[in-house]
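Schema walk-through. Below, the input block comes first and the output block second. Nothing else is stored per chain. Lengths vary across the set, and this one has 151 residues.
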Amino acid sequence: MNLSENQKGFKPIGIRVDVQESGPLYHGTKANLAVGDLLEAGHISNYDASVTSNFIYLSATLDAAIWGAELAIGAGKGRIYIVEPTGPIDDDPNLTDMKFLGNPTRSYRTKSPLRIVGEVPEWEGHTAEAIKNMSDAIEELKRKGFTAIND
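--- output ---
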């Protein structure tokens, strides 16, 4: 794993490959997709239009997917899809061990496509205040030079 200059010294301790989750897996976005569609890496990031994402992100918790849907850039309503990995998934190093020990958010990433197998039609989002606080915290990290691990 190559780390950016601002992440040197970070030592991943809990990276797992081909994680087995017992429940549904979710992906939050603003993209309007259909059952059977594939989400693939190599497209503009959900969170930074200047970045091509090398991974697709997913979570075993609805809350993490809700954050993904709410924080994704672009117009349109947030959507949460139930997804099925077509290949191995890894712990998301942007959240795992770097911010939280282990993987309490059960957040993952993959270079393999995710197949959409359903959509969560109704979900309760975070308050406007919570979304603003999270957005402000993300912007502060960017100002300090922290960027998402994308390699």
